Amino acid sequence: MNQALFIVWRESVEALLVIGILQAWADQQQRAQRLLGFLWAGVALGLLLSALLALLILFAGEAMSGAGNEWFQAGMALVASLLMVQMVGWMHRHARSLKDDLRRHADRQLARQGGIGLLLLAMLAVSREGSETVVFLYGAGARLHGTQLGLFAIGGVAGLVLSGLSIALLHSSRRFVSWRRFFAISEALLLLLAAGLLVSASERIGGQLLAWDLPEMAYSLVGDALWDSSAWLSDSHGPGSFLAGFAGYRASPSALTLLVLCGYWLSVGCWLLQRRTGAQACPA
User: Fold this and answer.
1) What pLDDT, on a 0 to 100 scale, did the predictor assign at position 95?
2) Of the four, 6, 65, 127, 141, which is 20 to 30 A from 84 by CA?
């Protein structure tokens, strides 16, 4: 539920921000009402494309069974994790200039293609956010069933509602909650969630590798727990369960899980340090 809430909230805020910028731009143009019609048509088409992608992914998942389905789900979780890290980098590079960039693109599209250009710009922007949402949600919730799946869906709806409230809050109280602070907090949460999805993908891959004829050391690497800290912080209930779903915490991690987490956070830490200092922080 928490994963779905954050994913939908974060992606919806970004989509609403883009739509708001384009709407404000269209209001300042001649024939504003006509342009707004093209804008909302583009938004609708973007949502339709995202829905088609969701159906395609669900169909592909249902069409596979057994090991094929497990590999597909692992691949989707891995893609979702990588996309989240890529999104953090993209937002860091473009957050400050997003408004000016969108207005510049809108001016260019209007000059070249008229209202159709604005429609295409809105469609591409919304379908990008929607497609990311679809991939993230499938990567996070593919294994859920019954009550857990219902709570996951409720979390998604709650995230959509929360995104509207967040946009209103950010526009009305910039003195207290700045866009820069909002994006910094959401970047940190995205990196945590990406770690959780990466661990989930590695465990699914590890589960499939256990069925292969591998050396004994490989089985130990994938299947044996290095320790058990469930007496202090269980990953099946309470705060540990939240950390397990959101950030990849495991009370009884295998060597593979530990290597994946350490490699991920070492890479992210080097990247963040390089971003802050402007120099190469880690060896290639």
Assistant:
1) 64
2) 65
